[in-house]
Design brief:
This protein is α/β, with parallel strands linked by helices. The protein has two domains: 1-42; 45-175, no CATH class. It is built from two helices and twelve strands. The protein has helices spanning 2-19, 30-41, and strands spanning 45-52, 56-62, 70-77, 81-87, 92-99, 103-109, 114-121, 125-131, 137-144, 148-154, 160-167, 171-175. A six-stranded parallel beta sheet has the order 1-3-5-7-9-11, with no helix packed on it. Strands 2-4-6-8-10-12 form a six-stranded parallel beta sheet, with no helix packed on it. Helix 1 packs antiparallel against helix 2 (30-41). The longest helix has 18 residues, at 2-19. The chain is globular, with a radius of gyration of 20 Å. Residues 1-41 have low confidence and may be disordered.
């Protein structure tokens, strides 16, 4: 995080200095390109905390190479909806939804993934499509009324999965 903040600071300073060029021309230099490459090489992180009634989150993460992505979503309210897409290796997903109509959808491609989902509420629904996962750990906990999990795996190996449902509807579909 310190590296990211330092790089971001220098990038902003560089852009400010470039913006003050006397003739008004935009100058591109190798230093800026190097800084941008270093930022892109860092680990992607998306941390969302929503409190309210119509919470909607859409996260798209793409990482080339072996860097780990992180998507963490916490939603407290009525219509909690989280739509995630992670492409790359070493992805990590953590979801907490506490409210009325919790809906979560993940499309994931990559290896060495860790996924943890907790839904507390009324109309809990989880849809996941995992493609090409390797050594993945998946834990789903639903505590509510109309719990539903639909999980699809293609091209996976060494998968550890646990689904815990308490409540009324209790439906789990797993396709491999």
């Amino acid at each position: 995080m310190k590296v990211f903040c330092t790089v971001l600071f220098f990038l902003l300073i560089t852009n400010i200095l470039l913006a003050q060029n006397a003739d008004g021309t935009v100058i591109t230099n190798n230093a800026t390109a190097i800084i941008e490459e270093e930022i892109l090489a860092e680990t992607n992180q998306s941390i969302v905390n929503q409190q309210g009634t119509d919470n909607l989150t859409s996260v798209i993460q793409r990482q080339e190479g072996m860097e780990a992505n992180l998507a963490q979503v916490m939603q407290f309210g009525n219509f909690n909806e989280a739509l995630l897409s992670q492409m790359g290796s070493g992805n990590s997903t953590s979801i907490l939804q506490d409210g009325k109509e919790n809906f979560y959808n993940l499309s994931l491609e990559g290896q060495n993934n860790n996924i943890g989902i907790v839904q507390n509420g009324d109309n809990n629904s989880i849809r996941q499509n995992l493609n090409g996962v390797n050594n993945a750990n998946l834990e789903i906990v639903q505590d509510g009324n109309e719990n539903e999990v639909e999980q699809e795996f293609t091209g996976q190996s060494n998968l550890n999965m646990q689904i815990i449902q308490t409540g009324n509807g209790l439906k789990a579909i797993v396709r491999q």
